[in-house]
Design goal:
The protein contains 2 helices and 2 strands. By secondary structure, it is mostly helical. The protein has one domain. A two-stranded antiparallel sheet has the order 1-2. It is elongated.
Length: 47
C-alpha cells in the first residue's frame, strides 16, 4: 500500500519518505519524546 501511494505521489511531483524508527506504528506523536522524534525524522528513507 505504501508503495502504491508513493508512486501516486511521485507521478504528481511529490517526494514521499518514511520515518526511520523509534515511532511505533499507529503511535500518537504527542507521546513520543523529542529526541526519538528528531532521530526518526533524521533517518527518513525514500519510499
Amino acid at each position: 500500500t505504501s508503495h502504491y501511494i508513493a508512486e501516486l505521489a511521485r507521478l504528481r511531483g511529490i517526494k514521499s519518505t518514511r520515518i526511520a524508527y523509534g515511532v511505533p506504528f499507529g503511535g500518537e506523536l504527542e507521546y513520543v519524546d523529542g529526541g526519538t522524534l528528531t532521530h526518526a525524522f533524521a533517518g527518513r528513507r525514500e519510499v
